[in-house]
Design a protein that fits this description.
By secondary structure, this protein is of the alpha+beta class. The chain contains 8 helices and 10 strands. It has 2 domains: 135 residues, Alpha-Beta Barrel (N-terminal domain of MutM-like DNA repair proteins), CATH 3.20.190; 124 residues, Helicase, Ruva Protein, domain 3. InterPro entries: FPG_cat, FPG_N, H2TH_FPG, Ribosomal_uS13-like_H2TH, Znf_DNA_glyclase/AP_lyase, Znf_FPG/IleRS.
């Protein structure tokens, strides 16, 4: 699932390539991707892009007086069609590429394809006057990547919560942009068990968790910045210390990284660094 560092790199790339460009054609291949049926993406033909921004895990293209807001969902992404002058050789569809749901063509020949690799359509597009008209954007909490994000913002949504801390980190209404992967990385850096309730955290643990949250997200954004968008997934995977590395050696203590089940997904942790040696059950309680 794309998280804020990858989405930030994506919007910066899109903004650089598309600012000032006119949309000459829009093809909605999968009608379920269009969420504002009375105002479909095709209504943006003839309008110019003025910029791209990010709201949590959402992409926001400012087009004319409107906004094309794209929720990448669980498996959504964007690619430049192969043959674009500035696209890398590895970009573009092939036999194993995810299907294209929406195609945007621009006056300089650039073609952007919005894709979804899932078994069900999770990518969605809204055409709105204000991004906050998209319910998920309107509900977003403070973003740890924002330079204005403070310890007070963090404490407001974490301190005293009777909920597992990993769940709090992934709760978009509390902290925007963090998903399964970076929450694993944050908790490993903070040396906190993912199943500990936020209300049980000590002052020292809260200090570590705040620093790890801000540091992990901001450093990941810097690490991903400038990486070609077709290589961002690989760059993210390569940067992980524990997420996706069950059975491998923890780079901090040398113990073996283990799996545990979290909601409908599987997450990873180091028992020595995070749980005092305790092995979490594979199917953790909610």
């Amino acid at each position: 699932m794309p998280e804020s560092p990858e989405v930030q790199a994506l919007v910066e790339d899109l903004g650089t390539r598309l600012a000032g460009r006119e949309i000459t054609d829009v093809d909605v291949v999968e009608f379920r991707a269009a969420k504002t049926r009375s105002r479909p993406p095709t209504s943006l033909r003839g309008e110019r892009v003025s910029g791209a921004t990010r709201h949590g895990k959402h992409v926001d293209l400012a087009v004319g007086d409107a906004h094309l807001v794209v929720s990448l969902g669980r498996h959504g992404w964007a690619r430049y069609a192969k043959g674009d002058a500035d696209a890398s050789e590895s970009e573009g569809p092939d036999a194993d590429a995810p299907p294209t749901l929406v195609v945007l063509t621009f006056d300089d020949g650039t073609v952007v394809e919005l894709t979804d690799a899932g078994d069900w359509v999770s990518l969605g597009c809204w055409v709105v006057d204000d991004p906050r008209e998209v319910p998920a954007v309107a509900k977003l909490g403070a973003d740890p990547a924002d330079p204005g994000f403070t310890r007070a913002d963090f404490d407001r949504v974490v301190v005293g919560r009777r909920k597992q801390v990993k769940a709090v980190l992934q709760e978009q209404e509390s902290l925007a942009g963090i998903g399964n992967a970076y929450s694993d990385e944050i908790l490993h850096l903070a040396k906190i068990s993912p199943v500990t309730h936020a209300a049980a955290l000590t002052d020292d643990e809260l200090d570590r968790l705040f620093d790890a949250t801000v540091g992990t997200i901001r450093s990941a954004i810097e690490h991903q910045r400038g990486v070609p968008i077709d290589q961002l997934k690989a760059a993210k995977i390569a940067s992980m210390r524990v997420h996706g590395r069950a059975g491998e050696t923890c780079p901090v203590c040398g113990d073996t990284v283990l799996d545990f089940s979290f909601a409908s997904t599987t997450a990873q942790y180091c028992p020595t660094c995070q749980t005092g040696g305790e092995r979490l059950p594979l199917r953790a309680a909610g």
